[in-house]
Design brief:
Chain lengths: ~950, ~120
Amino acid sequence: MSLFFIVALPFLGALLPGLMNAAGRAACAGVTFTVSLAAFIGLLTNLPSVLAGEVVMARVDWMPALGLNFTLMLDGLGFFFALLILGIGLLIIAYGRHYLSREDNMGEFFTYLLLFQGAMVGIVLSDNILLLLVFWELTSLSSFLLIGYWKHLPEGRQGARMALTVTGMGGLAMIAGMLILGQIAGSYDLSVILQNRDLIQADPLYLTALILILLGCFTKSAQFPFHFWLPHAMAAPTPVSAYLHSATMVKAGIFLMARMWPVLSGTPEWFVIVTTAGLLTMVIGAVIALFKHDLKALLAFSTVSHLGLITMLLGTGTAFGAMAAVFHILNHATFKAALFMSAGIIDHEAHTRDIRRLGGLRHLMPVTFVIATIAALSMAGIPALNGFLSKEMMLEEAYRTELFGNVWLVPALAVVGSLFSAAYSFRLIGHTFLGKVRDDYPAKPHDPNPGMWLPPAILVVLVLIIGLAPFLAEPFVKLVTASVLGGAGEVPKAYFAIWHGLVPALYMSIIAVVGGLILLALFRPALRLWDAAPRPEAKAIFDAVVNAAARLAERLILPLHNGAFSRYAAIAAVAILAAGFHAWFTGTVGAPSRAMQPASPVPIAGWIMLVAATGGLVFLHRNRFLSLILIGIVGLMVSVAFVYFSAPDLAMTQFTVEVVTIILLLLALNFLPNRTPIESSVLRRVRDGAVAIAGGLATFGLAYHYLLRDAAALPISEFHLANSYKGGGGTNVVNVILVDFRGFDTYGEIIVLGIAALLIFALTETLLDGPVRARLLNRKPDQPRSGDKHPMMMVVLTRVIMPVVMLVGFYIFLRGHNEPGGGFIAGLIVSIAVVMQYMASGFSWASQRLKYPYHGVIGAGVLIAGLTGIGSWFVGKPFLTSAFTYVRIPPFDKFELATAALFDLGVFLAVVGAVMLSLESFSRLARRAHVDDDKHPMDIDPSRDDPPEGATTPAKGGV
Amino acid sequence: MELLVASAIGILTAGGLYLVLRLRTFPVILGISLLTYAVNVFLFASGRLTVGAPPILRDGVSTYTDPLPQALVLTAIVISFGMTAVVVMIGLGAYLGSDDDHVDDQPAGDLHRPEDAG
């Protein structure tokens, strides 16, 4: 199976669980399992190539100019991790199906899980480091969703936030590191980077890149001092802990260190940083784990400790260390996932994970006891189990490692870590399962159904098989090690065996196990000592840091961002002006190259009206109705200007838009106060006036200057004029540009227009559903209502001219390609025809006669335009290539058939739908305001006529 | 003629800016409309001013005005209608929800003051 499918399957599959939610829990889990299984089988089909030592590649150029390509690579290392991710994923899905209770939304859970799985597989198969970063961030996000899955638990939310913060910050550092690395190597492809070890290590920026990348790895893999998020992430459901926080996600950092091992390792900096961090993490994690009473917290810190162990092994920079690391990744994934699932079983059955409340469970839960005990003994490093083998390799490697010039430091700390590791493993067995059966469990514990214990059991069988017959795992581990090493080292000859003779590692191992038993025997005094010792609380420190950052941000932002829109507008205007002045004084202006055209009386008259209306608007804007009339005059004058300056299409558009805008503003004014009160001080008005005059002068200067000069470069319009008829088949060049040359722009624009209308509809719905509804219903109109709601003359007239206006619209639409007109204008004209019906005959009368909802009209318009564009694919042309032909059907004259007309039809429909949906939404608000809706289109409100003598106010409302 | 168009653009901008800096939603919306006119005419004028030469191809005619700015401004006019409608809706919703049509956040406790417009 192609690598693309393996990565894409979980992402595509993530759509399914949500859909299957209604079909029941088994179906939901089943479909998730099937998707994972398909990806798993797809991965296995690549096994022969990987075994043959080939590197399977798949490549699609995504953004080649940025060096970002969708390049996937499958080698031994990638295969190993993908196998863990998908294989353990299958077990987790089976386990999760039984673990989640009926109240949990299973579809949501499995959707997140599949998203995570896809992102994780993406990381391990990426060949491009930028692509890898994308998947890396996706794992952080999906893990955030999974940790916070139980949204009602504050620990879950806090843990999710902490995990996202820590791993997200590390991810940011890593982006910088990867970019530096790519710059050094000259390519963002891993396969190229991995070949350039010497070049990268010699670069002065090597250390910077190394530290930044390691920050990403250490945060993700919970290395000291970033280890604290992992225990808090245990608020997640146990399947998540078992999957993300033991087997897969926390290993992503380790994976990356292994992936980058050939280029980054082997230098003193790498050795000191990675080995030290690993050692510290291993010891600290193991010590804390021993004294945790929550089973999952114990396992979380033990995971931290084991991750430190693997990091330390990678840090030594030797081939043997790398091999031991690979082997321990495999072993840790098996026994730790099994342990987490066992902890989940205990929690599920006994309703507590507190070790102090457990004990004696071996009689009540024998199956769980066997599974957990084998896994824990493996973790402790007992022979015949797989943990022993890799731990011995670790001790051997530690024995040979010299840090800070001290030969004893690393071996001693390794033994201490292993000793505590053995102790907490024994404590897990001893204090949970052994001892007397108690009678105060929160719930009566018993073994769960096989659906829950089979997945960990399968893992434990693996623990036994590898532990008893290590030679079975040896070829595979060596294959993976070979791909970790790349060209930077030889795979060690050492063979895997339980008995290596009386080597130092064996003595160290014995010390650790015996010491662990002794420590457990002394557990009570040790615990008292531990509780008495002062320790920094990571969460408190983290919260303090986050709060300090939030306060700092508030202090920086709030003074500027104080919620005053007029201040933002003033700042923006002044900033734009300043930028303009800067450009003006630093740029050069050539001499005028165009002669000023003489002005005849008509334009001068139009100019005077426009200026008078604008001035009146500024000075009289407090009277809102008057200002609507004034802005109407401005719009009309602008339309006239368009006519005068050879833009008939623009004039028609401006004119019709003016009509619908005024209707819209009138509808809004129905609810808003009719006057704007005087609030701003004189000083403030002077300030605003100064800003306005400066802005006006600046635009005047700019416009005046360029109107008198020709364009610096030849305008591209010549092309449009020359090709409009030849290529587009139309003589109205503006329309041909809209529907043909720049059809894609127009397509985007009608979509935007449709979205705007839907937004207005949605806002209206929200308003009418909320508390505003009651206010609207009780609202008293602030103006006397007209007694004659639907004047007969108007009703008759609008109905008579409706077909005429429609005809005009049709005509304007049809001639659009060759004469002024087209879909936009025709759409506006038809909208006005329909609006007239609403205005004259009333909302309900018009609505009853409406056959198609306006949403559908918008959708049909966008769909028709889109399908017209797609149609050109079928003849092998790019999207929206137009075609036209001339036909002649006697007795008619020759006429043109163009696909552009079909596209224009889409534009027309979208415009009609959008305009009508907006206006209808506004009038729906008004309709709710007067509950009495008119049954008849020509009814008369008698209360308004002949008000009784002495009545001071006319009766408001209706019949 | 150029002077007339340029000064009209300047005056529309000045009026629009002044109204945008007002404190209530309705004048701000009017100001945005004025700015829209100014910007549309400005963009349109980037094709320079031509009288009596519409971009409709005719036999025997060789000079036309620049059609490209016209096409861009045509869609801009329609889109600006959509934008105005959305802004009006937001302003209206805010007013209906809080009985207050200020564009600036009001100090706490001062939000529901009686309507002072008449």
